[in-house]
Design goal:
Elements: H1 18-28, H2 38-58, H3 61-71, H4 75-94, H5 97-111, H6 115-149, H7 155-168, H8 172-187, H9 192-215, H10 220-249, H11 257-291, H12 293-329, H13 333-360, H14 362-365, H15 373-405, H16 409-428, H17 436-461
């Protein structure tokens, strides 16, 4: 590509935008061509955030394609897919610390000028992902009947779910490798390569699903196998990129026990933080279920729209992770402050724009999800609340990214536990009436997000999280 650059220091494998790549090299040499001006910082943010957004959107296409293909097999296979995918998404979601911890560590080491050490951390993170993925794959395959049984499915649906879960379980090492290698590449300020691989992976998954489900006649098993193959291929492709870069700078490729344990220790607080978020989401679903079929159906619409909007804000958080980690490694505190201020402005601004769409246009797009008037009314009312709180969500997501990039995982773990405990009584206090779902989303998007915004905001005002150097 025209904007790729061959660097004698990093090689051609990174895929970083040429202009931004030049900025990185000159900063490492002590020169700052863009300085700390808003325009220069904006450029850095967008170069990372836009491809990151594309990769985030490409990944959910796996579930979408599987649903579309399996849906034509009948109701039981589709219901089984819903249960199995819920289990897999939970397992993979809890392992997202592999990406977050690796991004922060690699970016900080790169900022300090230690390219070899940065790539060594990336390799160690990938070994951790491979080992953890193998354990989870075996555990998921063996425990599939029990895991599905805990969700209370009928025998016919449970059979389909177990089949999909067991055929897709071998893809877990590949998916965790994707997380770790993507984290390493983000730390190296490369979000374009994960975008390309995610897009090709989604396309390959679609082709394999159609071929195996209908061409070979494997049914839902073919969908699970196709997804597993695509995930393993993506993991290999991204690993090759990181390994090639590691070899260029002389980083060791063999597993190092010390490095793997260091990655595990760094990721444990982020695992706790992620678990607290998952528990909050699970509690929200439980309360929505208790409200009745109409509120539950409406909640599915609201959560799907909320999740889509969150991708845009997550892209800004990813940019904040990489840039803040790099600036702290370079001991450039003024740049850290500039990045904090500017990414927060982007987060709030993007949140306000998304909020206008979510709440202001809800009555236009909600009918696309359901033809039920009662579900439409309930969902639209809750979406207005979600829209109003979206700027605060943008603030919160970005601050999360900043503190993750700074390696402040221990604080985020305790803050996650505390904010979840604040949310529990608010969620349980929701009344079972016509406005129940609206109040539930006021509790989740309002109280829970406000608690996260306050705790992370107070932390960011101080300096204890700004530990500079490698």
């Amino acid at each position: 590509m025209d904007d790729d650059v061959v660097s004698p220091r990093y090689g051609a494998w990174t895929g970083i935008n040429a202009e931004f790549f030049l900025w990185i090299e000159e900063r490492l040499a002590g020169i700052s061509p863009v300085g700390h001006t808003p325009l220069g910082v904006d450029r850095q943010i967008l170069v990372l955030a836009v491809p990151a957004l594309g990769a985030l959107v490409a990944e959910p296409l796996f579930v979408l394609v599987d649903s579309a293909v399996v849906g034509h097999l009948g109701t039981a296979p589709l219901a089984g897919l819903a249960l199995a995918s819920t289990i897999l998404i939970t397992v993979i979601g809890l392992c997202v610390f592999l990406a977050y911890a690796t991004t922060a560590a690699v970016a900080r080491r790169l900022g300090s000028g230690d390219r070899t050490g940065a790539l060594q951390l990336g390799v160690d993170g990938m070994w951790l992902a491979l080992g953890l993925g193998a354990v989870l794959a075996v555990g998921t395959w063996l425990a599939a009947p029990w895991l599905v049984g805990t969700l209370g499915a009928s025998d016919e649906v449970a059979t389909q779910a177990v089949t999909y879960l067991r055929w897709s379980a071998p893809g877990l090492p590949g998916m965790l490798l994707v997380l770790a290698s993507t984290g390493a590449l983000r730390g190296l300020l490369d979000t374009r390569t994960p975008l390309v691989v995610a897009s090709l992976g989604a396309l390959g998954n679609a082709i394999l699903n159609i071929l195996l489900v209908y061409g070979v006649g494997m049914g839902i098993a073919g969908s699970g196998l196709g997804t597993a193959v695509a995930q393993v291929a993506m993991g290999i492709a991204l690993s090759v990129v990181v390994v090639r870069g590691a070899r260029q700078v002389g980083a060791a490729l063999r597993p190092a026990a010390g490095g793997i344990l260091a990655n595990a220790r760094a990721g444990t607080p982020l695992l706790v933080r992620t678990l607290s978020l998952r528990l909050a989401i699970l509690l929200t679903v439980v309360v929505a279920t208790s409200l009745g079929p109409v509120p539950l159906a409406a909640h599915q619409v609201v959560s799907a729209v909320w999740g889509l909007a969150a991708f845009a804000l997550d892209a800004l958080a990813i940019a904040a992770q990489a840039l803040v980690g790099h600036a702290l490694g370079a001991t450039d505190v003024p740049l850290v402050r500039a990045l904090l201020r500017r990414t927060l402005q982007w987060g709030v601004g993007a949140g306000a724009l998304l909020g206008l769409v979510l709440g202001g246009l809800a009555w236009l797009y909600v009918p696309l999800f359901t033809s039920s008037d009662s579900v439409q009314h309930t969902a639209a009312a809750a979406l207005v609340v979600a829209g109003v709180t979206m700027p605060m969500a943008g603030w919160t997501f970005v601050l999360d990214g900043v503190l993750i990039g700074a390696g402040d995982g221990r604080f985020l773990a305790w803050a996650g536990i505390g904010t979840f405990l604040v949310y529990v009584p608010c969620a349980l206090a929701v009344q079972h009436d016509d406005a129940g779902l609206t109040w539930l989303w006021a509790a989740f998007a309002g109280v829970f997000m406000l608690a996260r915004a306050v705790t992370t905001g107070l932390r960011a005002r101080g300096t204890r999280w700004m530990i500079t150097g490698a």
